[in-house]
Design a protein that fits this description.
It is a single chain. By secondary structure, the chain is α+β, with helices and mostly antiparallel strands. The chain contains 17 helices and 15 strands. It folds into 3 domains: 175 residues, Formiminotransferase, N-terminal subdomain (Formiminotransferase-cyclodeaminase, Chain B, domain 1, 2-Layer Sandwich), CATH 3.30.990.10; 161 residues, Formiminotransferase, C-terminal subdomain (Alpha-Beta Plaits, 2-Layer Sandwich), CATH 3.30.70; 212 residues, Formiminotetrahydrofolate cyclodeaminase monomer, up-and-down helical bundle (Four Helix Bundle (Hemerythrin (Met), subunit A)). Strands 1, 2, 3, 4, 5, 6 and 7 form a 7-stranded mixed beta sheet that branches. A hairpin with a 4-residue loop joins strand 3 and strand 4.
Length: 558
Amino acid sequence: MKQLIECVPNFSEGVDINIINQITAEIQSVDGVRLLNVDPGKATNRTVVTMVGEPGPVLEAAFLAIKKAGELIDMSKHKGAHPRMGATDVCPLIPIANISMEETAGYALKLAKRVGEELQLAVYLYEAAQPNKERSNLSVIRAGEYEGFPKKILEQAWKPDFGPAVFDVKRGATVIGARDFLVAYNVNLNTTSTRRANAIAFDVREAGRVKKENGKNVLDAEGKPVNIPGSLKSVKAIGWYIEEYSVAQISINLTNINITPVHVAFDEVCKKAGERGIRVTGSELVGLIPLKSMTDAGKYFLRKQHRSTGVSEKELIKIAIKSMGLDELSPFKPSERIIEYMLSDKADSKLIKMSLADFADETASESPAPGGGSIAAYIGSLGISLATMVANLSAHKPGWDERWEEFSDHAEKGELYKSELLRLVDADTRAFNQILNAFSLPKTSDEEKFLRKNAIQDATRHAIEIPFKVMQTAYNSMEVIKAMAEMGNPNSVSDAGVGALCARSAVMGAFMNVRINAAGYDNKIYVADIIERGTEMQEKTIALEATILEIVNKEIDA
C-alpha cells in the first residue's frame, strides 16, 4: 500500500495572488502530488497550503515551493498579524497512511538538509524531527520573529540545524519538521480588543499565563515565574485583531485533536469569553480538518440538545458548521475543507452519487454492471435506512423524551450499517470490472498466461468476498430492525417490517452472487467453507425475518 504524507507549508504572503499562484504552480508541476487547499489570509499576510502524496514527490514539491517563495517574498517589507520568521515560515510533514512518525521525521530531516545546503537558507528542525527537545517547540524557535533574528541567529544556542548561521534579510529563516495532524482554528469575538482576546487565549491555552501580584510576576523558590495553566490540554492560542473583518479573534492550534477536539475548544472559548462579558459570534477553519472531527462535533451538539445522533454524515457536518458558526466569515464547503473528501476518488462512489432514476437506468442498460450484487447491497441499505428512521422518530416521540439516548444508540448503529452497505454498492461493481480486466490480459507467452490466471483467481476471490460482506452486513443490520419492530414508535412498525423484507432479500441476493462467483475459483476448500457459512447465514436470516414479521403483523392487527 502507498505511503502518504501531508505537507502544510505556511508562506509569508497572503495578499498578492500572483505570488501565491507562482508558488503553488511549483507544487502542481510535480507528478504524484495533489494540491488539496490554498488558504490565504489578508490580515495575517500568510497563506497555508496543503498537499499530499508519496514522500518522494512531496519532498520535491516542498523544496521547489520553498525555493520559489524565497525568490518572490521580501521579508524586510512583510507585515502581518501572525508570528513569522521567514518567507517559508514553517513546513511540517504529517503522516497520513502506512507510514510512521519516525519515518516521516526522517523525510523532514532529508528536506531540511537539502534546503539548507542547496538554497543556502537557515533551517531549524522542530517537533518529531528535532532531537534537541529544548528547541523543538515552534513558538520557542520563532520567538523574536523575523525582526529578532539578526541577533538570535548569531547565538551558539540558536545556530541553525542546516544552512548558514547568517541572517538572510530577504528570505529570513524557515522551520521544517514532522508532527501529528494539527487543526488551525480561529474563534471570532464581538470585540475589537486584542488585549481582551489575548486574555481569553491565556485562559484556555495549555501554557496559560504567568501569575502576577500587584502587577509583578510571582516567582517560585528558584526565582522562576510561577505559571497558571490554561483549561485546555494540547492547545496553543493567542489573541489578535483582524482588520479585514473588524473583529478580534482567538487564534488556536489544536495539536492533538484526540485530547482537545475542535468542538470542546469552541465551547470552552465561549465559556471563558462569557465570563469576561464577551460573546463568540462564530469561527473559521484554516486549512483542512479530518472528517471525524466534524462528525464528532455534530454529535456533540446534537447530544447537548438531547437529539438523536444517528443521522447522516452530511447532516452531522451541517450541524457542526452551524453550531460553531464556521460559515460566519466565508462559506464553508465540506468538499474543499474535509481531508477525506479531498482525497476521495469520485469513481469509488459513482453509483451511489446517482439519482434514483439514473441508478435504475444504469442498471437497466446493456452494461452487465451494476448487477445483482450491487442491487442486493442497495436493497440492504434501504432496509436499514427504514429501521434507522424508526429509531430517530422514536427518539423524538412526544412522551418518550427520557428514551432519546436509547433510540439514538440504535440509530447510530443503523447509520453505520447503511454507510457500509452503500459503500458495497460500488465495491461490487468494481469487483466485477476487476474480473473483466483480468480476462482481458494478454496470454501469448507462458509467463503471460501464468500472470493472467493469477489475476483472474485474485479478482474472483475478491468478487466472492464483496457479496459475502454484503450478506454479513445486511444480516447484522437485522438486529436494529428487530429492535425497532419490538419497541420503536408503533405508528412506524410497518416500516420496520419492510426493512426486514429488504434485509432478507439483500442476504439471499448477495449469496447468489457468492455462489456464482465461487464456481470459478480453484481453491475448493475455501469455496466449501464460504458456501457452508453463507448457507447457515441465509437460514438464520430467513428465520429472523419470520420472527420480525410476526411481531410487525401482530402490532398492525392489534
